[in-house]
Amino acid sequence: MMPRARATRAAVAGTAVVVLLGLAAVAASPLMASGDTGAARAPGSADAGQGTVTRDGRAMTWRLSYRLPDPVIPPAGTGTTATTPAPPAAPGAPGAAPAPTGAVPATVPMRWVAYGGSRNARTLRRVAAGKADLVPRDGVVTFRRRVALPVAGAMSGGFCAEFDLTALGIAEPAVRCPTGATATRAQLPARVPEVTVIADSVGTGLDYIPAGRAKATGAWSAVFDLKVCRRLVAPPCPPNPPSALSVIRSLPSPGDIVLIHVGYNDAGATYDIARVMTALKARGVRRAVWLNLQAIAPFASGVNAAVRTAAGRYDWLQVADWASHSAGRGWFVADRDHLTPSGAEALAAFYRAEIARAIRALDAQAGSPAR
């Protein structure tokens, strides 16, 4: 039997760059992110999707793929305006006339900045900046940059890019990047996804396999709070850890996604998911990933029924069907709750897959910090 032990809270970074194409902030620019959806972005605020950012030890890796907007062609006889530069020389040159419909400039100038910092810091510090001329391919520009961070503990951070689209008749960039030495996370259109994992003693099985926490989260910024005898909202059993609700309310930064794997010490009647979802929303969490319990667990029936009901009420609650995934597997010890080493490996892989699915799902959430 895997021993029950109190797990310590820690933040971990994955050891490999994991690139999930099309994960970024919800775009609010005339550009179109090139990814699985290819959905157009509406003009507006600076909170625009700008590719994928992952953490790799002491570095951030940024991958950007943008489809250029159609050129802005002024009506005949209207002359120039503030958003339409006066025609000089050939299309594509600085200050050139708007390109013909369907044409793209030879290069697209871009200014970029990178900020990194502690996940719990209120501001991120500038760590790199630069310029690049991007060459369109079939109307799409792509860019990749890897930036070293001062310390391995700088779990959060991200990038921002401003494009010069005057050759397309667009004089003002849709995104204004921070120019100072610090920025808030909300100012960065491309950001490291932040995840919090809250679990009871079943989740502590991650700590009894090599690199269990890193296997569960990959290259995302992750905080773990795994405690024996935890309950969702009710008072705990000894050694009396805080409830999942208390953890959510007290964390300096719950992040974009919270994964909850709690219920083995609960009963359906006291499993108050509504209170937890209210707290998550108040803390700015955009996606809740909720594991149900394996069917053989003592409290599975009531807890799983509560999870099913909640899923019908909250479109941002993602049910992670551990019950089906673990059915018939020899991953559990005699108490039918806790995991063997092979079960802990399976749980780590399951967490990781569900977190990846949650990041992808944020694409459809208005105002979400990750696409």
Molecular structure report:
With 371 residues, this protein is α/β, with parallel strands linked by helices. It has two domains: 178 residues, Rossmann fold, CATH 3.40.50.1110; 141 residues, no CATH class. A six-stranded mixed β-sheet has the order 1-12-11-13-14-15, sandwiched between helices. Strand 14, helix 4 and strand 15 form a beta-alpha-beta unit. The longest helix has 21 residues. It starts with 9 loop residues before the first strand and ends in a 10-residue tail after the last helix.
Considering the chains and any ligands shown, give keywords for the structure.
Rossmann fold; 17% helix; disordered C terminus; five-stranded antiparallel beta sheet; disordered N terminus; alpha/beta; six-stranded mixed beta sheet; elongated; 371 residues; 2 domains
What is this structure's SSE topology?
Layout: E1 10-12, E2 32-33, E3 52-56, E4 59-67, E5 108-117, E6 124-134, E7 140-148, E8 156-163, E9 182-183, E10 190-191, E11 194-199, H1 212-217, E12 221-226, H2 244-250, E13 257-261, H3 273-282, E14 287-291, H4 300-313, E15 317-320, H5 322-326, H6 341-361
Parallel strand pairs: 11-12, 11-13, 13-14, 14-15
Antiparallel strand pairs: 1-12, 2-4, 3-4, 4-7, 5-6, 5-8, 6-9, 8-10
Helix pairs in contact: 2-3
